[in-house]
Amino acid sequence: MYDKNKIIPGLLVFFGLVTFPIWYGFGGGGKLPVPEKPTIAKQCVMPTAEMRKSHMVLLNQWRDDIIRMGGTRRGVTADGTEYVRSLQKGCMKCHASKKKFCDECHTYAAVNPYCWDCHLQPKEAN
Amino acid sequence: MDNNRRKFLKIAGLTAIAGIAAPTAFNALLKGEVHASTGEEGAAAAKHGGAAATAATGKRYGFVIDTKKFAEDRTLSQRCIDVCHSIHNVPDFGSTNKKDEIKWLWVENYEHAFPDESKQRVSEEVEKLPIMTLCNHCNNPPCVRACPTQATFKNAEGATMMDFHRCIGCRFCMAACPYGARSFNWRDPRPFIKKENPEFPTRMRGVVEKCLMCYERLAEGKLPACVEVAQPAGAMFFGDLNDPSSEISQVLKEKFTIQRKPSLGTQPSIFYII
């Protein structure tokens, strides 16, 4: 092989660079998000695992049920606490800080939901 | 050769006869269903303002607006507008900027509100009446037909509702609405909202908005905000038009009222006492 001395180290450097994202931070997912839990309630409207996975689906279901099907605005959690099926009037009453709750995971997962383009987030001290 | 031409003509002739006769025979067989097509007549009548009478089912909320009461108290209309716009986070771009204006509830003069009415020799009093105008929550709303995403629709209470999430900003509804009740957010409305109401969302750029009959207040058993302000003066009434015993039905029985542009057949749910 001609230029063996150049090609083999060159290939090694090339593969090293290409696979950099894999071996950098190998074995760790970075700092995990820790969304702040509300203090005024013990239980959310659905089990934590379900909320984590499909809260966005639930919000869409609430919306369609209430404004299109004439559904109820009141919901009851498993332990009997009443809540309002609404983002601004419901969720954010317990999860009072968008920054410490919503953004914590959304930033980690690099998703940009457009809820807050229209909905108003609770006022909080910056 | 001759034989072939003869055959061809025979077949062509038979095919022509069968083609003409078959649909006629078919129609004769389906005679029992002929009446079903008369539904089109009703639709045609509705198009020309002759309301195709359908049995009233469910609720149909409507308003009666007494324009004379608004003329007596000239500040009342502005108070209604202020309340509506403040609780619904409607931006204010200033009175000089009509291009960006967003309005849910506004004042029109008689001539513009009722172009169908005769304008020859109108009394001065009527000419200067402040006509409160808002979405007519039509029973036959052209905007709902025009909306390609069903962002606007009729709800079970008779309100012409909007789901802002679904609005793609095509503005077909604005072209379809004969009352100019819809406004488009040409720019981000957030900086122009004087005081945000945390209980209600705002809108974003590229979304159409209009009066939603205070659906969020109706759900709590309250009256629409404008009616709540105007009711002590007896200037506005709100209730179920389909309920013959409701207050609004009693008012409509006693008073002569007019609707905006009735000839279009949209069947507005807002009635005006002139």
Could you give the topology of this structure?
The complex is a heterodimer of chains A (126) and B (274).
Chain A: H1 4-18, H2 20-23, H3 48-67, E1 74-76, E2 82-84, H4 87-94, H5 98-108, H6 115-118
Chain B: H1 2-29, H2 39-47, E1 61-66, H3 67-72, H4 76-87, E2 105-108, H5 110-113, H6 124-127, E3 131-134, H7 142-146, E4 152-154, E5 160-162, H8 172-176, E6 183-184, E7 208-209, H9 215-218, H10 225-230, E8 236-240, H11 247-254, E9 270-273
Parallel strand pairs in B: 1-9
Antiparallel strand pairs in B: 1-8, 2-3, 4-5, 6-7
Keywords:
heterodimer; A: 126 residues; mainly alpha; 2 strands; 49% helix; 5% strand; B: 274 residues; alpha+beta; Alpha-Beta Plaits; 3-stranded mixed sheet; two-stranded antiparallel ribbon; 11 helices
Question: What is the domain total for the residues of chain B?
Answer: 1
Structural domain count of chain A: 1
Low-confidence stretches of chain A: none
**Of all protein chain pairs, which has the greatest interface, and how many residues does each chain bring to it?**
A-B, 14 and 20 residues
SSE arrangement of chain A, N to C: HHHEEHHH
Range of strand content of chain A: under 5%
Helical/strand content category of chain A: mainly alpha
The major sheet of chain B is characterized as:
3 strands, mixed
The whole-angstrom Rg of chain B is: 26 Å
> Strand pairing plus helix content of chain B: what structural class?
alpha+beta
The largest sheet of chain A, given as strand count, sense and whether it forms a barrel, is: 2 strands, antiparallel
| Mean of residue pLDDT values of chain B | 90
Could you estimate the helical fraction of the residues of chain B in percent? Answer: 25-40%
Q: What is the CATH C-level name of chain B? A: Alpha Beta
Topology pattern of chain B, helix = H, strand = E: HHEHHEHHEHEEHEEHHEHE
| Average pLDDT over all residues of chain A | 90
Number of helices of chain B: 11
The total of beta strands of chain A comes to 2
Return Rg of chain A in Å.
23 Å
